[in-house]
Amino acid sequence: MRLGGATSSVRFRAVAVLLAAALGLAACGTDTSGAGTAGQGAAPGQGGGSTAQYTPTGAYTLAGGSATKTGTIAADSQDQSGVLVTGGGLALNEAQVSTTGASSSSDESGFYGLNAGVLASGGTIAMRGGSVTTSGAGANGVFAYGKAVVTLSGTTIAATGQYAHGIMASGGGTITANDLTVTTTGGSSAPIATDRGGGTITVKGGSYRSTGANSPAIYSTGQITATGGVYAATGSEVVVIEGANSVTLTDAALTASKAGKWGVMIYQSMSGDADGSKGTYTQTGGSLTETATDSPLFYVTNTTGVITLSGVKLTAASGILLKAAAGQWGTAGSNGGTVQLTTSGQALAGDVVADASSKVTLSLTKSSTLVGAVDAADTAKAATLNLDSSSAWTVTADSHLTALTGAAVSGATITNITGKGHTVTYDAGDSANTYLAGKTYTMAGGGTLTAA
Known about the structure:
452 residues; 45 strands; elongated; disordered N terminus; mainly beta
């Protein structure tokens, strides 16, 4: 991932220039080796053939069999990992791994793990306790590539270089992490990330914090699942999803605070780091907070974002819950966002904003509530609100809907929408609104629902 390429993916390489320039979002990094963009032409399959141009080395290496390692492991050369496993099974028990070397290529660091503190490009690694500390550019903390499987428990990971992520998987690698403490301070450096070819990362508990520019706490071009834990980003979005990939959270606490960014971003950069155009964000319980006063809680651009929320404590200091709009990626005129937001037992507060190339569909179920305006500027390509019989909307500004389903009609009154004196329009020609018969209604608390 190159942030931007994701926090591309993790490094934001190819995207780095675009992201950093415009969003400063996720570009994992840029190749400064003069060797080109290694891996750019490789198929993003699950652990398929490598096109790496550099050969990784390690201060400690394992190519087969089984071994246990403890104590201090240090590496100080360019492209050298502290631990390199290409086959077999390694147990790291309370080991202290440190590296100071930089990577020759941020592409290969993000695609294959070149220069990672602990690198598994095959076989398995089980690390219990201990620490991994890296300071060089492109020096990810712990990396799994291809068929490699890495399990971490109670480990502290600190990466301070640019394009240096905490735990990362690409090419189909797998990481399971329990109760880690992970910090990153460099630019385009996500504590949790996947890159080209994707990967699976499963997290339980722990703390994941980033302070560098364009460094989300979580950057997904694969499947990332987290239960519990604290996730914070002060220089970026807290979560970024690129392409047809996912982040699934349960009882997790997330905070973003960078002005000019967004809480959660779902997009397609077209960099080649992630296929598809439907990103999925699911959160149950826990909290999601954006403290910047100019930043929407959710932002979807140049893709479809499927967002499912249940019982999450949401805070958007800007008052903007969701923004779907064209950005710097894709083809002008067709690069807006399409959002499918579904809630269950969820309180939503804030406005929903969409531009002329974007569509939003809000489906509120199981006693969900929305307090805010929907398409107040009347710019959306389409805006739909679906209410089940137990859910309600409180309108805070004049709003404009293409379709409204589930409005509770009692004579000439709508009882489950509180208008507070505002006007809500709907498209009388849309088949979903047939039950409204093109009429004007009074909403609870004043205001009118009327055909556009």
